[in-house]
Structure formats: C-alpha cells, structure tokens
Amino acid sequence: MNITIFSIGKLKEKYLKQGIDEYLKRLTAYAKIEIIELPDEKAPETLSDIEMEQIKQKEGERILSKISDDTHVIALAIEGKMKSSEQLADDLDKLATYGKSKIAFVIGGSLGLSSDVMKRSNDTLSFSKMTFPHQLMRLILVEQIYRAFRINRGEPYHK
Q1: Whose CA is closest to 7, among 119, 133, 128, 144?
Q2: What is the mean pLDDT of each successive set of 10 residues along the chain, which is 159 residues long?
Q3: Which among 35, 11, 24 is positioned nearest to 134, based on CA atoms?
Q4: Backbone phi, then psi, for 3, in 5-degree steps?
Q5: By residue range, what is the domain housing residue 115?
Q6: 107 pairs with which residues across the strands?
C-alpha cells in the first residue's frame, strides 16, 4: 500500500517532526508512506469570507494537482466522519482487499479545505469536533495509520 499525506504548510516544530519521523520509521514495515508539504497562502489576520474562499481555493488547487485519478482520497475535516481506530483499520484493510493501493490523506491549512478538494475526496475523516493545529494533525494521523496496521496484523499495541 502506498500512502501519501498531503499537508498545507511547513512543519517547523522540532518535537512534532521527531514524533512524525518515529512513526514513519515504524510504518516502513507495513506500507510505503510519504508526507508532501504544500505551501500555504500568506494571509492577513482578518479576512473576508471571499478572501478565505480564495485562499482555500488556491491551496486546494495545489493539492489536487498532486493527486492522480487512481488515488483513493480521504479528507481530514471537522465535519468528516468520526471513526474508532478499529474502524479506520477496517477501512484501510478493505481498501487493500479491493485493490486500492494508492491512498491519500489530505490535511488542509488553517482555513480548512476547499469545496473542490472535498468533492474529489472519496471519504472524510474527523478526529474530533475540536479544532487542532494542522501541524499537530500530521502526528496524530501517522500514529493512527500505524495503529491501524498493528490492529490489522493482530499485533499488540497499547490502548
């Protein structure tokens, strides 16, 4: 399975990079996984609704330009489907069973994802109704992907 995580914005926090790198290393036993950072749009603190949509649109175009037609896309969004770790593991297992070897998880910028990215997505995923920094979501996501592979292989993992 080839998993790509598309994320808007550059990860600067060393502690997050270290955590992500640890899980990426662990995941090499299960799948080929790659994180692609795409630049965020620079914006002032206060934006009109139109300006917010324009920024999301530009970031969305960057994301969509990198996703091939045969990729199964899962968008991370607050309004997405909440799943347990076991449900995510089952979803990944089913995708592999049905020959979907290219999976992309998409993490938007601070304003979220464009409607075009949401339309292109095959599924949505929400980790909580709470808002998290998109940089932190990378760490949470790679940990949950790792947990999913451990669950699917029947390997022990702390709860």
Answers
A1: 133
A2: 95 95 96 95 86 94 96 96 96 92 94 96 95 90 97 85
A3: 11
A4: -115, 130
A5: 2-152
A6: 7, 76
Q: Please write down the HEC assignment for all residues of 97-117.
A: HCCCCEEEEEECECCECCHHH
Q: Residue 144 is encoded by which pair of tokens?
A: 């949950």
Tokens of 95: 């995708």
Which residues are known binding-site members? 76, 108, 127-132
Binding site for S-adenosyl-L-methionine: which residues?
A: 76, 108, 127-132
- Are 135 and 15 in contact by the 8 Å Cβ rule? The answer is no
Strand duo 102-107 + 72-76: pairing: parallel
- Whether 85 and 144 have beta carbons less than 8 Å apart is answered as yes
- Asked whether residue 142 is domain-assigned, the answer is yes
CATH number at 136 reads 3.40.1280.10
**Is residue 6, in this structure, part of any structural domain at all?**
yes
